Every structure is written in structure tokens, then in C-alpha cells.
Amino acid sequence: MEKSVVFNNKLLPCLLLVPQLIITFVFFYWPASQAVWQSFLREDAFGLTSEFVGLENYQSLFVQPEYYASMLTTLIFSSLVAVLSLSIALLFATQADKNLKAASVYKTFMIWPYAVAPAVAGVLWFFMFHPSLGTLARPLRWMNFDWNPLLNGNHAMILVVMAAVWKQISYNFLFFLAGLQSIPKSVIEAGAIDGAGPMRRFWTIIFPLLSPTTFFLLVVNIVYVFFDTFGIIDAVTGGGPAGTTTTMVYKVYADGRLGGDLGGSAAQSVVLMVIVIALTAIQFRYVERKVQY
Amino acid sequence: MVEHRPLNDIIAYAILTLGVFIVAFPVYLALIASTHDAATVVGGNMPLRPGGHALENYYRAVFVGGSRTSREPVGHLLLNSFISATGIAVGKIFISILSAYAVVYFRFPLRKTAFWIIFITLMLPVEVRIYPTYKVVADLHMLDTYAGLILPLIASATGTLLFRQFFMTVPEELLEASRIDGAGPFRFFWDTLLPLSVTTISALFVIQFIYGWNQYLWPLLITTQDSMQTIVTGIKKMLTTTDELAEWQLAMATAILAMLPPVAVVVFMQRLFVRGLVETEK
């Protein structure tokens, strides 16, 4: 939908674009291209000289067992967080969509974790499940369950997953509720007249109609788990114990900052970029289709 | 609702109450912990009722800082967070409303190119190009400055897209009418378009303020002095002390303080925030 009435000025629009273009070039295009360039270089330990090594950084990346481990961790972490936060949010949204008197109060109470920083969410959950002082670790101790996310990799993973899910429920809840409320009531009534009970109506009518929202949320959630959860992982486990919660993004950070391996870190960034671009492309194809409805 | 069964409502209320409980419990615990003294919290048997040390803990967290480490008092970090979150929100609104205006209301060579140059930035979050961006900021001598905290985070197209979408829905008759009145591009922007955009601007402000406030990795990387940290990065440093006994009651007071501003914004601006969110994501 292009405007047919416009201003004829040629210089002014360029001036209006200048601030955004400068910031975009300086802080986006320049560093992004540097990331690609750096992935072909090897720097010495002091960062004084660098030498072009072609694909060597990538080669050494793909023989590292730790890199595959971080891929696997990312896969497990993101699927757990996405599946759990989507299904829990859907459960709450279907309940809030019912004609309840207090629905708007519940809605307000459900959405505010959106505003809590991931790192803060991580600290809260760490406090609750801290092996020695956590309020919720106490009952586990009474049951003689040796809960210790500081030492046990699986426990650490469970803890970061819980914090990440907690933080993401509100976002998914909002979109599911909006999706549910846009389903025409007449369709559901028609199902009821045909004798379909609430469960049957949900699975045969509501859930299929929600599938565009679900798919959109799935993509957004995966991107969330990739990047925004960095704060949770850093605050709760620092990638540990023994690298069991080191996701791909965390490894980029850890290798570059702690390991001083900028070439390897840049190569990892490029691999991540490719993954994110692929995910975004899927999302845009979906959005294109949705616009046509 | 199709059929109305009381049992149905009871189940719904029960599930929603459980949901609110899950959502609120971690914060409730933090609030409780921030009112007890160190020994009670670390003892592992913290009661679920508030204790009597709230004033003392919050006073120490905000003005004094931890005793075991030389941490900055949180009051200063709160200010840093306010400045950078507001800077990110205002900066983004400023650059994106101008560029959206240019792209929608003018015809000029390379218009499409300019739009795509901006649009592509949606694909790569700052986390992916973190070290090169760090290097750029260092080369520009922006480490430990507010400019360094703010500028790299506003280099993305979300705002431009939102304003572009909104401008597309503004009736063309308005522009025609202002032109008949003899208004130029500045007058039209200032007198007509800006007042119409107030809702969109506020929604974007809310979302960007929260986004800026909650940043973690970026401030962590580019601040080397404790005095330039934000509260979200500061809180973790309270927990990583050299000896085992972190001051959890102060950390929890800090967590509550770090949550208050963005949560308040969401709760009070709920309608705007929800609208803005749903529209940016489309």
C-alpha cells in the first residue's frame, strides 16, 4: 500500500534517514562484517598480529567435542523451554478466555513477568532452589533427594529451564489469549450444537485455528531461548557445572572473553548468524502467508 | 461461553489461581528474604513471613553497598539503568520515526534500498556480533559511557517498521488537506502526524524501556568500572563473592528494586504495552 500523495522534496528524506543509517552502519554492518572477516583470521595471544588462515577456525570448531556438546545443550534447552512454556501458557490462556468475572485481574497478574529481566529471573529461581538455603530445596532434602544444581549437570539444566519457562509464560499467554479471542464464538457454538464436548471442541476446532499463533510463537520462543536466556545461564550456572549448561551463545561469550580466542569465537558467531537467519527466513515466509488471509 | 457449568468455572479459577501462584511465588520469596537478616536467610530455614530488617536491608542496598566486597551501592546503578533504558527508548523512537516518515511520505532515489538496509538489521541480535561491536565501541572510546550503553542497542529496525505500518494507515486526505493549507513537510509532521502517533510512540516507549532496562550481556561486556554498571548486571556480582557467604538478603532487595520499574510500567501501561507488542511482532 503505497501512498499516492507524497512530498516532492529529494534532499529532505535523505537527511531524515541520516541518523538511523549512521547508527546502523557503525553499530550493525561494520561489526557484522568484522565478525565474518575475523572468523578467517588467527590472532596471537596479545592481539597484536593477525594472520589470514582461511577456514581453519571453522575446521577446528567442528572437531571440538565441546562445540557439539554446546549444540546438543542448545537443542535440549530450547526444545524443553519452548514446549513447556507454550503448553503451560496455552493451558492458562484457555482458562482466562472463559467468561470469568475476574478474567482481567488474572490477566494482569499473569503478564508482568514479561518485564522481569532474565538475569533477575535466574537469580530468583537460584535462590529458591539453592542447595543449602533454598526454600524449595528443603522439601527435597527431607525426601533424601540429593538436589544440587551446583554440582549436578542435570539439576542445573532443570533449574535454568524452569527459570526460562517462568519468564516466557507471560509472553506466550498474551499471544495465545489474543489468538483465542479472535476465534469467532459462532464456530465454537456450532460445534457445541453438533454435540462436541469442551475437550473435543478444543482439539478439533480451537487448536487448529490457533496453529498460526502457535507456529509464530514457536519461532519467537526459539529465538528467545537462543539469546535472551544468556542472562539466566550466566546468573545461575555460568555455563557449568562442567559445561553442561553452556549453550552456543554462552560459548561465543566464554571463548571470546575468558578464552581470548577471538577467531574461534567469531567463527561461532557466524555459525549462529546462519542459524538465526534461517529461522528468521522461516518466520518471514510464515508472516507473508498470514498477511494474505 | 457455550454451556455454562459452575464446575467448569471452578476448574478455571483453580487453574488460574495456580498460575498466578507459580508466577508470584519466586518474587514473594525474594521479597521475604529482603526483610530478614543475613543469618536467617543463609541458615536455610527462612520463614515465609516477613522479618523486621526491611528498612535496614534496603537502606544498605541502595546507599551503602555490601560489606564483604566493595560493591557499588545500588542507588547509583538504578540511575544508570534509568538513563540507559530511557536513552534507548527515546533514541530509538527518534531515529525510527524520522526514517519511517522519509520512507512513507517521500519518493526519492534509493528509497527501497534504504528501507532494506534498515530492515535487514532485524535478523541479527547484538548477541551474535558481540565482540566486533565491542571493538567498534572501544575504538570510538565509548567504553564506560552512556553512549556506549545506548547507541549499539538502538541499531535495529523494530521501531521503523512499527511507525511505517502506522503511517500507512493514516488517511491520505490528511496530507492533502494540510497541503491545501500550505503546510510543508515539517508542519505536516509536527502538527498532524506527531499528534496522531502519540499512542504508537507510547507503546514503543514502554517496550523499549523494558528492553533497555533488562539488557544483560551488553552492559556486562562494555562496562569495566563498577560505577557504570546497570542494576541487572550488578545483581549477579553481589552473588559472586570470593568467600562462600554471599549477602543474599541484599541481593534479594536488589532484585526487587531491579524489577520494580519495568513491572510498574507494564502493569500501569498494560493496554498500550499489549497493543504495541502485538503490532511490533507482526
Short description:
The complex is a heterodimer of chains A (293) and B (282). Chain A is 71% helix and 2% strand.
Q: How is the main sheet of chain A built? A: 2 strands, antiparallel
**By helix and strand content of chain A, what is the structural category?**
mainly alpha
List the helices and strands of chain A in order: HEEHHHHHHHHHHH
User: What's the number of extended β-strand segments of chain B?
Assistant: 0
Helix content of chain B: 55-70%
Q: What class do helices, strands and sheet pairing of chain B give?
A: mainly alpha
**Number of helical regions of chain B:** 15
Binned strand content of chain A = under 5%
Poorly predicted runs of 5 or more residues of chain B: none
What is the strand arrangement across the widest sheet of chain A? 1-2
In DSSP terms (H or I, runs of 4 or more residues), the helix count of chain A works out at 12
Overall residue-averaged pLDDT value of chain A: 85
Mass-distribution shape of chain B: globular
Number of strands of chain A: 2
Which chains share the greatest interface?
A: A-B, 99 and 107 residues
Describe the structure.
The complex is a heterodimer of chains A (293) and B (282). Chain A is mainly alpha-helical and 293 residues long. Chain A is 71% helix and 2% strand. Chain A has 12 helices and 2 strands. Chain A has a two-stranded antiparallel ribbon with strand order 1-2. In chain A, helix 3 runs antiparallel to helix 9 (198-227), helix 5 (118-128) crosses helix 7 (153-181) and helix 11 runs antiparallel to helix 12. The model of chain A has no long low-confidence stretch (mean pLDDT 85). Chain B is mostly helical. Helix content of chain B is 70%, strand content 0%. Chain B has helices spanning 6-33, 38-42, 54-64, 74-105, 111-119, 130-139, 146-150, 158-169, 172-180, 185-196, 198-213, 217-222, 231-239, 248-268, 270-281. The model of chain B has no long low-confidence stretch (mean pLDDT 86). Classes of the chains: A mainly alpha (293), B mainly alpha (282). Chains A and B meet through helix 1, helix 3, helix 4, helix 5 and helix 7 of A and helix 1, helix 4, helix 5, helix 6 and helix 9 of B.
